Amino acid sequence: MLIVLSPAKRLDFSDPSPDVPATLPRLSEDMASLVRTAKRQTRADLRRLMGISEDLAQLNRERFQALNPETPEVGVQAAFAFAGDVYQGLEARTLDSQALAFAQDHLRVLSGLYGLLRPLDRIQPYRLEMGTRLKTRRGSSLYDFWGDRISKQLNADAEGHADRTLVNLASQEYFGAVDAKALKLPVVTPHFREEKDGESRIVSFFAKKARGAMARFAVEARIEVAEDLKGFDHDGYRFQKAASTETDWIFTR
User: Fold this and answer.
1) Could you give the 3-state DSSP secondary structure of residue 170?
2) How many CB atoms lie within 10 A of CB 170?
3) What's the rounded mean pLDDT across residues 20-38?
4) Coil, helix or strand for 29?
5) Other C-beta atoms within 10 Å of 223: how many?
6) Are 77 and 11 in contact (CB under 8 A)?
7) Residue 165 sits in which domain range?
8) How many Å apart are CA 167 and CA 149, to the nearest integer?
9) What are 73-93's pLDDT values in tens digits?
10) Looking at residue 16, what is its pLDDT?
11) 10 Å Cβ neighbour count for 113?
């Protein structure tokens, strides 16, 4: 079983990584090509492409200029660098070394810049959302750029797993980069909903945090079979069999 997550816009490079061995991103040649393209973007280009403020555009231009694909050993491991809602649920810095080793084999993070990351892969500060329409020689968007590369890496990463199911805990924006035709794995997508006055709805903040919490649940319990994730009961969530299908699993609280 593999679990895929989205990255976070918010990064925290202020604290050193815990003392666990780091790895390097695998799709490094593709990443280096994207960095060269990103370095050519002006502040105005980045503001337009990302829909961000002048200050954020300047920050991200400075980040791209400083980013050096030839020094991959610089940076912080992905699971500790990302600091958004999902990663509040994952709480990677509180996992022990054995849990992190399990996560390294079973968790993956989709990334606009790096393509596909393992939790202990080192990353440098960046912001490049998967939906960005950055033109490259491969097309007019990052979806065009990554093509079937992410799916092929996921297929390879699932080799040797007793259950080759891919559990999609990523956003639609990011999972759209997984080429369905090239992917050779069955996919299930958990959904987290809040119940009130007899109705249930998705609340983005809670759903994101629950995705991270489910990933942590899988890591702590050493879950190898996707079906066992139906036992997830963190923070009051329960699996709703009647509302679920084989590929879309509904959890409510």
Assistant:
1) coil
2) 23
3) 95
4) helix
5) 21
6) no
7) 2-14+21-252
8) 18
9) 888 999 999 999 999 999 999
10) 66
11) 24
Direct distance between the N- and C-terminal alpha carbons of the chain, in angstroms, rounded to an integer: 25
Alpha carbon distance 23, 110 (integer Å): 16
Number of compact structural domains in the chain: 1
- Do β-strands 2-5 and 166-169 pair in parallel, antiparallel, or remain unpaired? parallel
- Tens-place pLDDT, residues 102-122: 999 999 999 999 999 999 999
Q: Please provide the average confidence, as pLDDT, over all residues in the chain.
A: 95
Residue 231 in tokens: 């036992």
For 210-219, what is each residue's pLDDT tens digit?
A: 999 999 999 9
The answer to whether residues 77 and 122 touch, using CB atoms and an 8 Å cutoff, is yes
Reported confidence tier of residue 160, pLDDT bands at 50, 70, 90: very high
18 pLDDT more than 90: no
Q: Name the more confident of 95 and 19.
A: 95
* CA 184 to chain CA mean position, Å: 19
**Alpha-carbon distance 146 to 103, whole Å?**
24
Q: Check if the beta carbon of residue 86 is closer than 8 Å to that of residue 5.
A: yes
Residue where the block lists tokens 């199911």: 165
Instruction: Please name the residues in contact with 198: beta carbons below 8 A apart, sequence gap of 6 or more.
Output: none
Count of CB atoms situated within 10 Å of the CB of 85: 19
Scan for tokens 């500790």, then name that residue: 80
Of 179, 192, 7, 199, nearest in space to 109 by CA: 7
